[in-house]
């Protein structure tokens, strides 16, 4: 299958893209939430994370991604663990959560060691957050996929991670590996900071955190995925998406809060406008 470089796609992508209709069965806005997911979202173990639910809409997002409680789900670049904690609670009883860490084989020795440490501690870390046995969770690097893992995942989630794939120029290899991990018909769900459709190329190179929705769709299609549909669950029309210092100007980072008045203005805007997209692995 022909691979196109992500940088080239971003450079040539149109400002907008006519997307196909939602596939049959794709959850519509307001679709019923799985009771087990609703219970996980409301779990007291999430008390420190729940304040951000108003911005991140985890119930609507995971329902749109069709994540079920008996699935094997990979979370790419788990980061601070906000979604890991929820997914751990939701999936541990009957499903499986796997932390998927980036391929650091070409990085410095220090970075490789850091990645190995993150992989090693992920199962116990999530187990502590979710109050579940560590054996319910696993993790590995995409640079060292264990035997037997290919073709076993129902879902892979990229939660605000696509800009880092672009910025590090690792999208081609990482997406190819993720595709191999999915079962036939398996899906990737993407939540990503959304630039305006007419944002200049220089602004959407990944360094600002924002990407154009059309570019993300085109990249995924070029890597063997069919576009299933979009949700506006994580949209925020108050975000102008043109911050000179990038998305980190806004909450929760609030790097742009130089004084109390600015902090209040940014908090009133809330977190970034985000696209929520679903893709199916093509055979």
From TrEMBL:
UniProt keyword Methyltransferase, yes or no: yes
A biological process term (GO) from this entry: methylation
Alphabetical list of InterPro entries matching this protein: S-AdoMet-dep_MeTrfase_Alr7345, SAM-dependent_MTases_sf
Signal peptide extent: 1-23
Keywords: Methyltransferase, Signal, Transferase
Gene Ontology MF annotations: methyltransferase activity
Protein name: Class I SAM-dependent methyltransferase
Species this protein is from: Novosphingobium olei
């Amino acid at each position: 299958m022909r691979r196109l470089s992500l940088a080239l796609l971003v450079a040539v992508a149109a400002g907008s893209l006519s997307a196909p209709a939602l596939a049959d069965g794709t959850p519509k806005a307001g679709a019923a939430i799985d009771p087990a997911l609703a219970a996980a979202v409301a779990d007291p173990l999430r008390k420190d994370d729940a304040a951000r639910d108003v911005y991140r809409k985890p119930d609507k997002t995971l329902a749109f991604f069709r994540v079920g409680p008996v699935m094997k789900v990979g979370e790419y670049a788990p980061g601070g663990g906000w979604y890991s904690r929820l997914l751990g609670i939701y999936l541990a009883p009957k499903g499986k959560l796997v932390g998927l860490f980036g391929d650091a084989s070409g990085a410095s020795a220090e970075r490789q060691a850091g990645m190995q440490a993150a992989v090693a501690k992920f199962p116990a870390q999530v187990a502590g957050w979710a109050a579940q046995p560590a054996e319910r969770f696993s993790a590995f690097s995409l640079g060292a996929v264990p035997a037997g893992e290919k073709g076993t995942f129902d879902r892979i989630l990229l939660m605000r991670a696509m800009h880092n794939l672009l910025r590090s120029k690792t999208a081609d290899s990482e997406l190819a590996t993720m595709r191999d991990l999915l079962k036939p018909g398996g899906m990737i769900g993407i939540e990503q900071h959304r630039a305006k459709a007419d944002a200049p190329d220089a602004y959407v190179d990944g360094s600002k955190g924002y990407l154009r929705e059309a570019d993300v769709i085109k990249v995924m299609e070029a890597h063997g995925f069919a576009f299933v549909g979009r949700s506006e669950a994580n949209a925020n029309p108050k975000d102008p998406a043109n911050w000179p210092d990038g998305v980190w100007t806004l909450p929760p980072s609030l790097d742009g809060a130089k004084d109390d008045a600015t902090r209040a203005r940014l908090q009133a805007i809330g977190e970034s406008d985000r696209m929520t997209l679903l893709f199916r692995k093509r055979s």
